[in-house]
Amino acid sequence: MSRWLVLGGTRFLSREVAAAAVARGHEVVCAARGESGPVPEGARFVRVDRDDDDGLAPLRGERFDAVVDTAIISYRWVREALAEFGDTAGHWTFVSTMNVYSDLSRRGDGVDAPLLEPRYTDPEGPEDFGAYGSIKVASEQAVDEVVGDRALVVRPGLVCGPGDPYDRFGYWPARFARGGRALVPDAPEQPFQMIDVRDLAEWIVVSGERGLTGVFDASGPAMTLGSVLEEMASAVGALDLELVPVSTESLAEAGVMPWQGPRSLPLWLPESHHGVVDRDTGPALKAGLRFRPVAETAVAALEYEYALGIERERQAGLTVEEEAELLERTDMTRESGGQPRVAGREPANDRE
Fold this sequence. Notes:
By secondary structure, the chain is an alpha/beta fold. The chain contains eleven helices and 15 strands. Strands 3-2-1-4-5-6-11 form a seven-stranded parallel β-sheet, sandwiched between helices. A two-stranded parallel ribbon has the order 7-10. A two-stranded parallel ribbon has the order 8-13.
């Protein structure tokens, strides 16, 4: 048994890391404010607030064989954790992001692709979230400076599954389970990669046990958006589900946003960001990263959606009213002879 410190442990990835470490027989300490929920059964909770001056003081003097830091967008948090535990930790995992790359339109690149310029100041509010990638670059540099020979830097892409707080992936299982005519982006050949949060967490823990070091892009196999939506629909879709593809041009004209946020169709991305969902993850696979089928993630995500409440206000996707309005507009366009085309297919009236 070894001692693990998970900075977090109450939400999404950090909680799954703590749960995986407990399941593998480690002594796990979760350091968090405790506002996002309980830590996994078997882990020890220590209340800290990393926004406070000397916020990690409750853990001072403790030694850990492995530390996992999932700090989302705070360079100061990363520096202070390194100052507190960097000299004594046996292994250090820092969870970064694929958003560190300077050109997100480039497909198939690996971890040696050019990065953004680092930013060493934390955001002052939600409107400054555009600094996300640059702050992660600065944080990676700090990790390398202090614990570089003991550090694993993980750059995930889209992380999905139960506990996801961002409502992106979960929108689709929830929508498909409701059935009826479901509006989808007409972008079936868009590249796509994702990873189930449980698979990523397991790999982080196993890698820490092995002492794996280096920088890795961590995501699943190369797929297409069309195949992923079809697999989810097959896994959780209602019997009367009908996918209605609408051109991306029409969606943009109607004010529908890609990827995330209100009035959006999640997981759809413009070409300028295809590099986020099409990276060379071969090195991570060779280092032991494994992934489950999309259908299994969709089923788990739907269970989580039901637990939260399907009718709740979401952070991403279309409301029932917004989708109905767009479907009506699509029907009117088709009736006037301007039927949206599905990429790679002929319109239905041309096949009759």
